[in-house]
## 1
Amino acid sequence: MCASSQTWAESAATMTDADKFLYGDRGAVNNPLAQADWATKKLVWVPNEKLGFEVGSLKEEQGDECVVELVDSGKKVKINKDDIQKMNPPKFNKVEDMAELTCLNEASVLHNLKDRYYSGLIYTYSGLFCVVINPYKHLPIYSEEIVNMYKGKKRHEMPPHIYAITDSAYRSMMQDREDQSILCTGESGAGKTENTKKVIQYLAHVASSFKSKKDQVHGQERQLLQICEKINFDVTGYIVGANIETCILFPANPDQFEPITGTDDVWFQHGDLLIGGGGEGGEQLMSFN
């Protein structure tokens, strides 16, 4: 992690490849010129059919309408007050937790996620939630070294990551002696399966109970099935078993789908994976859904 006393240019030179996809460049955050420009021009977000929203400078208010000068084109347009959304000060650019935004609106959320994504930062917190945007490429932020970086750390001490969410849930399970759940949800192709794998990877490493094996999943299955996993721990925090349940996502006629080759001809499967725990049958267990 880069020292706070360093300038961005100095710290960037010492960054590893992984650091660039975790910390990013927030050099404009404390730029006084950017802050002054934002305040002087009264920058706001206005709707745009192609872009969703674009930056405008508020020039005049006329009853229920406002005159706004579009920053990119210089064109002046009249827009209903209700369609204008406030813009956050530059110090909130690429903020790690969107709950910190002064102006929490649709345009600001989309802008922050887009800016972070284009900077290689795919994880962003939104309060208790972690928003993930699929990069559709491999990133060097899932190594054993990165796992150890997040191990035992509080969420605010590290950049947003699925490992931070997983570690927080694991520590809560151990401290409070209560079951914990992590829900990965999103549209098809959003990266639910991959992030679920990262959760299991982290838990397997932290618990040091067994070595994980790579799963081979047929490409068509993501349209049909969702894998739900329940991992069981003993009271010392070691993994002693797991349940894997495969369910149909949408009620539909199997004839609507192409056959899945290389697998059993079934539409619903349920399996249990048990790893030797070395304990008695009545040993107390905690679960991680």
## 2
Amino acid sequence: MGTVVDRVDQLYLYDNAVCEWVERAPLQTTAGKLEVVFATPDVAFATMRSVLEDVAIDSASTSRVPLPFASVSRTDVTFDPARFTGNQNYWRKLGLSADGNSVRRSKHPRPVKIKYAIEVWAANRDTLNRWQAWTPGEFASHEMLREIDFSSIDAVWKKKAIPFIDEGVVDTSQLEAEDGQNRILRATQSITLNAWLFSGIEYVPIVRKIQIDLHDVVYPAVLGVDAETVWANADEYPLLDKIFVSKGATP
């Protein structure tokens, strides 16, 4: 039996890739670039406020979250049968362990679809218009390729281009502002990643010598010799063809 070692949390690689792409959006902000947090819409402002408090000298300056900013949340991870092949059922070798006593192997990556919701929070319509005008240019035929580095979890893949699929933008702004507050505008961009999830690594010990126990059918004793010695001295074992080999294979 081999020893199975779980992969590190690999979903964060995809999460970070989506957040880094959103940060590239050419939206005007006081910070110079669009601030992005990984959070569901219900806690987006609280999470953004917490991030600002960690970096702000005066925490009072974070009493109101500056707009615009974006929040990213992972909404679904599902198996993708369209990209599944029989290869996913077989092992692949990943080389030797550091001590050289084990072989590292893993099942082939499993195809999955990972869905994300990107919320762009803004104070004016011009910001949302800029976002909606920028995203179509990013997706050629509703798809773009983003390179992700998998070297931390897979020695074979290292870097691979992952398709990002555009699922469209929906205006999810508040219908009206709360009492005493300005109305917050919001656009929700949905994307799907044609991703892969890796199996855990299994360490299989290398067998460098096989000990073969031979049982003499005439004298029931275990002969502590290896197969080569037995067959080299076959004349000493007249009933050799009736000897049972409990392990290994005959020469």
## 3
Amino acid sequence: MGALLAIAGFEARQRLKLLSTWVYFFAFFALALLWMAAAGGVFKEAFVSFGGRVLINAPRQVALSSAFLGCLGIIVVAAMMGRSVQQDFEYEMHHFFFSAPIPKYAYVFGRFLGALATLAVVFSAILFGTLLGTALPGIDHARVGPYSVAGYLLPYFHTLLPNLFIFGAIFFALAALTRRMLAVYVASVVMLIGYIVAPSLARDLDYKTLAALIDPFGTTALIRLTEYWSLTERNTLQVPFTGVFLVNRALWSGFSLVVLLLGYWRFSFVATPAGRRGQARADEQAAPGGAQQTASAMHEAPDFAARSLGVLLAKSTWLAFRESVKNIYFAVIVLAGMLTLVVSSLDLGAIYGTKTYPVTYMMLELIRDVFALFVLVVTTFYAGEMVWREREARMAQMMDALPVPGWLPLA
């Protein structure tokens, strides 16, 4: 147990020293401030509505704000949780940990708990932002009620912390087993399916409870629990940890715990796991033909003319495109997007059980609701993957030494 706590403390301290950790913290803080400013009427053209005469700092509204803002942090959870274990393999530090006299459970769960504690600090910025946001200049004070400590702490413990554990456990297990970050980012996209599909199903009265259960973020369950509250209840009552909301939290937390334990069981505490067909076989099968081709390629006269830059740009673009789509991860993302669109369109034209015609505005709303966040997340992680690809393959220095302009690899 002492080794586990030592590794967890080391991981948390190292993470809290990184600039990126505090960039995430202040980004969430600023986002929460803007959210409350929009809810309080500071911006005339952009606003967040909880309904008429609803206090923006009432417990229910704070819980919804924390849930919605926390959904945007799935990429942050993926990055911090995945890197907590994947970085050891990237920098070849796992040899030192695996040869040290520490048990497997101390290494795995120590890394996990350290990253989880850091994420808990980062996402606490949402609470501070929603609290201080009500004091911004221009806020309509008629929409600000009395403050409640429990109204801010309960959403943190009921929504944000469970979400950090749910997604963190899944991402950590994937990073530990695959030793790659791309699998973690793809999993974050797949997890968005529940968040995107749930509101579509909730439009049908027969599927409201199912929609509340399949949302891993718990947002739909929270709305389902409080949707029939009166105005007075929405302005005064704390959100109870009961009903479909409790079932949702227990269901997804249990699933993530099983994934984490399975990941621990399958994790190989050796440098090169058995069954991983790695570098040794590739080195043994290095054929002389490859050396001959390299030698013949060296006799080709290099072309440094400006006209060659267009050819290089086209070839590098095609290479980047091919490397991005020619793998299992891209296929998973495409299938996830198709599945999301199909499931969301099952009740197309139906509004709370009433059949209507699927006219143009409904089709546009379907595409917007399904792919708005989906495209944002996919674009974010693929942009990072393309920029970081050479570094992960340890070819960045060779690429930097090539006689090409600096703008060409980025273009």
